[in-house]
Design a protein that fits this description.
Oligomer: single chain
Number of domains: 2
Number of helices: 13
CATH architecture of the largest domain: Up-down Bundle
Helix content: 40-55%
Structural class: alpha/beta
Shape: globular
CATH superfamily of the largest domain: Dehydroquinate synthase-like - alpha domain
Order of helices and strands: EEHEHEHEHEHEEEHHHHHHHEEH
Number of strands: 11
Strand order of the largest sheet: 1-2-9-6-5-3-4
């Protein structure tokens, strides 16, 4: 059985996120309902080999003319080079403003394809078909599209909401265990920032989802999307409450950037996992939350087989990490901004974090002074 979760807000056209088993089999009919012209499927080489032909065929069976563009798999494809290549290919295919982009893949593909759709002829429609857990619970919902630069992650982008999101739980069975765990970090994040009861479920019965249990996965995906869609509907462009969705990300993005976005060393979800654990430890250190809540946050991350400390993934300089955090999108005028917590399920934005206090914390966490 599938579940349709509405996403709506004052600044964009409402759409649905459909979650269920076997949705790829019905994707052609569902996408045809929102298509006005041709379709181009943008995917990566790995996902193309697994699911590309099937989706193209499903679209063609619903009388859509379809082309496919595949980019190399991995974070490196979120670049100006690949963005230019994709848009040039769309122009060469003769696409126009009535046509539709279908993003088939993980967060990299969704971000790249969404940005290409937003820029092409000043914006055309697109549909998200996320094939990783991380993309299903996070990046496919909410309209954030972006590419990376050598100076940081997701620094060049635009808000461009999809017309439809199809999250097929069955495709998660093709994920390597490390990628499934990586996505689980974003599931845990949603409980930590907004829903103590959901987090408690993740501590117990729900923990099976991190190992691939399909029923637990569907429940986790649905609840994560419900949490995110409610926040996005209130604050599409991150002027206020939406910033809470970045719990763990300021620490995590700094680690990723210091490792040159090398996913062999650190996946995005692993970075978020460490970041969430660090955010709760820093919150406890500052007296915002209890040490017991910080321990619970760490324990759920650890139980899923995810890292909880920066020393597990590399050797970092505290000053270099703070430099990365000062350049984060949430920083204002170079002043440090972090998403911290008062308790499990109660996150808040803390502006003007004292750099010296943060540096001392990072050194205690194992970073070099």
């Amino acid at each position: 059985m599938s579940v349709a979760i509405p996403v709506s807000g004052g600044g964009f056209k409402p759409y649905e996120v459909v979650v269920g088993h076997g949705l790829l089999a019905t994707a052609g009919a569902r996408i045809a309902q929102v298509a006005k012209g041709r379709a181009v499927v943008i995917t990566d080489e790995t996902v193309s080999a697994l699911h590309g032909r099937g989706l193209v065929q499903a679209l063609e069976e619903n009388d859509l003319r379809v082309d496919l563009i595949a980019v190399p798999a991995g974070e490196a494809s979120k670049s100006f080079e690949q963005l230019e290549r994709v848009i040039d290919r769309m122009l060469a295919l003769g696409l126009d403003r009535r046509d539709l982009v279908v993003a088939l893949g993980g967060g990299v593909v969704g971000d790249l394809a969404g940005l290409a759709a937003a820029l092409f002829m000043r914006g055309i429609d697109f549909v998200q078909v996320p094939t990783t857990l991380l993309a299903q619970v996070d990046s496919s919902v909410g309209g954030k599209t972006a590419i990376d630069t050598p100076r940081g992650k997701n620094l060049v982008g635009i808000f461009h909401q999809p017309r439809l999101v199809l999250a097929d739980i069955n495709v998660l069975a093709t994920l390597p265990p490390r990628q499934l765990r990586s996505g689980w970090a974003e599931v845990v994040k949603h409980g930590l920032l907004a829903d103590a009861d959901f987090f408690e479920w993740l501590e117990g019965e729900g923990a099976r989802g991190s190992s691939g249990d399909p029923d637990a996965l569907q429940k986790a995906v649905v609840r994560s999307i419900e949490i995110k869609s409610a926040i996005v509907g209130e604050d599409e462009k991150e002027a206020g409450r939406r910033a809470l969705l970045n719990l763990g990300h300021t620490f995590g993005h700094a680690l990723e950037a210091e490792l040159d976005f090398d996913e062999e060393k650190l996946t995005h979800g692993e970075a978020v996992a460490i970041g969430c654990a660090m955010a709760f430890r820093f919150s406890a250190r500052m007296g915002f939350c209890s040490s017991a809540d910080a321990d619970r946050a760490k324990s759920v991350v650890y139980a899923a087989g995810l890292p909880t400390r920066l020393t597990q993934v590399g050797d970092f300089s505290a000053s270099a990490l703070i430099g990365r955090m000062a350049g984060d999108k949430k920083a204002e005028g170079g002043r440090l901004t972090l998403v911290l917590a008062r308790a499990i399920g109660d996150a808040f934005v803390q502006r003007d974090v004292d750099a010296a206090t943060l540096a001392a914390f990072l050194v205690d966490e194992g970073a070099r002074a």
